[in-house]
Amino acid sequence: MFKNLNIFRPIVAILILFIPLYPKFPLTSIDGTYVAIRLDDIVLAIAILTWSIHQIIHKFPVFKIKITKLFLAYFAAIIASFITAFLIYQTDSTSLLFLHLARRFEYISLFFIAINSVKSKEDLKFSYIFLLISTTLVSFYGYGQKYFQFPVISTMNSEFSKGQLLQMSTWTRINSTFAGHYDLAAFLSVVLIIIAAIFILNKNKWIKISSLIVWLIAYPILTFTASRVSIFAFLGGICFVLFALRKYFWIIPFIVLVTFSIFNSIDLKQRLLATIPAFKTQISKTTVTPTSTPTPIPIAVVVTQAPTSITLSPTPTIIRHTTTETYPTTDADAGVARSGEIRFNVEWPRAIRAFNKNPITGTGLGSITLATDNDYLRLLGESGLLGFISFMIIQLFFIIKTIPLIFKKKQTYNNQISIIFLGCLLTTLANAVFIDVFEASKTAYLFWIMMGSYYQLLNFKDEK
């Protein structure tokens, strides 16, 4: 009776629902960092324990999976990074170093749990329904933040990460249930590709109608985040998917829609217009007049009618204590200048210095703080060439396996869904240029669930 029971299908469905929706309330803090133990860690621990027991009972079938070898190579690389940090650099206490290592294992464990959850297309359909539900609820909470003052739970600095209920100001970009607006944008840029493609491909009218409704509800939230990289990552991802699926007719409407959205969003339009001048400013500062730049101190401010009033807001503003710095007059220009300055003058050089210090194994996980805003530089700085190459080979495996499916004369439904997942992978890789998508817990959890489903789908036999 229970021989063919797939206990991991409901587990993954619950995770797809729970991970995006549960705000980042801390259960207990950890000394030396503002990474906290949260309820999602407990839920994941239960899922991992269940999977581990299953592996023991069935004599570890995970080692029979071909791609496991690639993950073992990556695990060996980050363990080498951990040992280097512990023995040589001592960047953190042993407990914190172990925490950073355990987080990577926790994230990637969902890949193997997802593999066990997907045995047929019906399992994928089951997960997709829960994805629609979670996306809808995340979007509704985002609308609530924008129009009805729903509280924000953010982890964008040490104070906010204590679980404070914050109120949005008129210019703050929404977080919904995520830790920050960039995390939310990265999540939506991927999910919206899946939903749009399923709407176009699927012939079941209820799936089509529900997908269309959820997409129309969720898409405006992506524009509310005003995340430049995510809106373009979404556009590039959806155009790639439609082109690869030979649905050429749909490409133009999506380009028109995104273009209209950019010009219709005051915040997004201003940030895009300010990007090039801000970028030129950073280049001139680093190449023409290089000067020592003080480390930025993140504090949260909201400017009201009284210029001296300062209150908490979920979006931190960087103020530099120097008389030589000048910023543009508008909020958008100033925000772009600050975000660019933090990346070009602080976060990216810090990661490059760590890589130069030890190109082979890096200076240890977590050694370049919790924010780099470029996951590739973070990989190089923290785990060196060993970590970077072994991690990227995993992504390359999926790309190489899927590209031949694009050129088949007749694409099966399985192949089409694989192509959709490839588009989502490329979108995530694009986001990683400016967002730490592989480190932010919500986006990392959901990414590896998607990749586990993706891997299993690639191994399905073609069906009529």
Describe the structure.
- The protein has 14 helices and four strands.
- It has one domain.
- About 10% of the residues have low confidence.
- About 40% of the residues are buried.
- It is about 65% helix and about 5% strand.
- It is mainly alpha-helical and about 475 residues long.
SSE topology:
Elements: H1 8-21, E1 26-30, E2 33-38, H2 39-57, H3 68-89, H4 94-117, H5 121-148, H6 181-201, H7 205-224, H8 228-244, H9 251-264, H10 266-287, E3 297-300, E4 316-319, H11 331-357, H12 375-406, H13 413-431, H14 441-458
Antiparallel strand pairs: 1-2, 3-4
Helix pairs in contact: 1-2, 1-4, 1-5, 1-14, 2-4, 3-4, 3-12, 4-14, 5-7, 6-7, 6-8, 6-13, 8-9, 8-13, 10-11, 11-12, 12-13, 13-14
pLDDT < 50 runs, ≥5 residues: 287-330
- Mean pLDDT equals 84
Query: How many strands in all?
Result: 4
The largest β sheet comes out as:
2 strands, antiparallel
What is the H-and-E element order? HEEHHHHHHHHHEEHHHH
Radius of gyration: 22 Å
Helix and strand composition category: mainly alpha
**Major sheet: arrangement of strands:** 1-2
- What is the domain total for the residues? 1
Oligomer: single chain
How far from one another are the termini? Answer: 29 Å
Percent helix range: 55-70%
Strand content: under 5%
What's the short version?
With 464 residues, the chain is mostly helical. The protein has helices spanning 8-21, 39-57, 68-89, 94-117, 121-148, 181-201, 205-224, 228-244, 251-264, 266-287, 331-357, 375-406, 413-431, 441-458; strands at 26-30, 33-38, 297-300, 316-319. Mean pLDDT is 84; it is low at 287-330.
